[in-house]
């Protein structure tokens, strides 16, 4: 079976036999971290397991290390998570969120990519599944038999070192909403603004009016214009904490603009040292 590596629509997911896919529900609300799991218990795609952005796709115990609000989970912890889900090589992984944002689903997609595991995101999320009239189930997850997984991150795909960012040659693309990028408002971090020299590409610009991703062709045209001649491999993505930046990275990969990287600590990591410069206003 050829594995999907960017987006999958609801019909394609529904057609997959249960033993050929690991479905992961990543619904998460930054304002109410418990809501995602409560929503999962109320109803989810049959066979899905649940992943918490805070507890499975991040290691919040490392927040005071200058790694941002959502530090990456350690390799061993992420391997244990996949083991508990019963993942094995060759098994298609599909992540989904509640609606069109694909925020945490894109984060899981990128983490799996970082660990060398092909995965896809359900285009349109749980809303698209419901809209298609496909069945749902409720209650706790019923994962398959556990496996033994030991994965390692590909360091070439991620930037952790703030010094590298300061001395960078690459284009830094910030996925936050423009008012936060400009520093007009800042609802989550201690100060607003952006890393000097960064450009702004709000992640919600990747979506069409129907809540699905824009076509690969349209995304390619838009990102090519935004990059201004910079090669995709010379792009580093960031956001507030390394989550919505994965949405831009996913959109670029879907558009065929491959090879960009993630600045995992992102804005919340950058401002952990008050001595680092902050720019405001337009890029």
Quickly count the domains: 2
Low-confidence stretches: none
Q: Biggest sheet, strands in spatial order?
A: 1-5-4-2-3
Which structural category fits the helices and strands?
alpha/beta
β-sheet strand percentage: 5-15%
Q: Count of helices?
A: 10
CATH architecture descriptor of the largest domain: 3-Layer(aba) Sandwich
Q: What is the straight-line distance between the termini?
A: 44 Å
- Main β-sheet: number of strands, strand sense, barrel status? 5 strands, parallel
The helicity comes to: 25-40%
Integer-rounded radius of gyration: 18 Å
**E-strand count:** 10
CATH topology of the largest domain: Oxidized Rhodanese, domain 1
- Principal-axes shape call: globular
Oligomer: single chain
CATH C-level class of the largest domain is Alpha Beta
SSE sequence, one letter per element: EHEHEHEHEHEHEHEHEHEH
CATH superfamily of the largest domain: Rhodanese-like domain
Average pLDDT, to the nearest integer?
Answer: 95
């Amino acid at each position: 079976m050829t594995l999907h590596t960017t987006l999958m629509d609801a019909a394609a997911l529904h057609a997959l036999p249960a033993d050929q896919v690991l479905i992961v529900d990543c619904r998460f609300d930054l304002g109410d971290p418990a809501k995602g799991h409560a929503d999962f218990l109320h109803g989810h795609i049959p066979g899905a397991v649940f992943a918490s952005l805070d507890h499975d796709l991040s290691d919040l115990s490392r927040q005071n290390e200058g790694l941002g609000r959502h530090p990456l989970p350690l390799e061993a912890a992420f391997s244990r998570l996949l083991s508990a889900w019963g993942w094995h090589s060759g098994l298609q992984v599909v992540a989904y969120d509640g609606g069109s944002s694909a925020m945490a689903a894109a984060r899981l997609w990128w983490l799996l990519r970082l660990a060398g595991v092909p995965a896809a995101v359900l285009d349109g999320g749980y809303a698209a599944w419901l809209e298609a009239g496909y069945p749902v189930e409720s209650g706790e997850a019923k994962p398959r038999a556990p496996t033994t997984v030991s994965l390692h991150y590909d360091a070439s795909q991620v930037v952790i070192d703030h010094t590298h960012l300061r001395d960078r040659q690459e284009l830094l693309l910030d996925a936050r909403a423009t008012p936060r990028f400009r520093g007009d408002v800042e609802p989550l971090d201690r100060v607003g603004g952006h890393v000097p020299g960064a450009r702004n590409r709000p992640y919600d610009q990747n979506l069409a009016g129907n809540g699905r991703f824009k076509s690969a062709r349209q995304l390619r045209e838009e990102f090519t214009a935004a990059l201004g001649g910079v090669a995709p491999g010379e792009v580093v993505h960031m956001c507030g904490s390394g989550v919505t930046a994965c949405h831009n990275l996913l959109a670029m990969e879907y558009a065929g603009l491959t090879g960009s990287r993630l600045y995992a600590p992102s804005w919340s990591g950058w401002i952990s040292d008050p001595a680092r410069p902050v720019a405001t206003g337009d890029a």
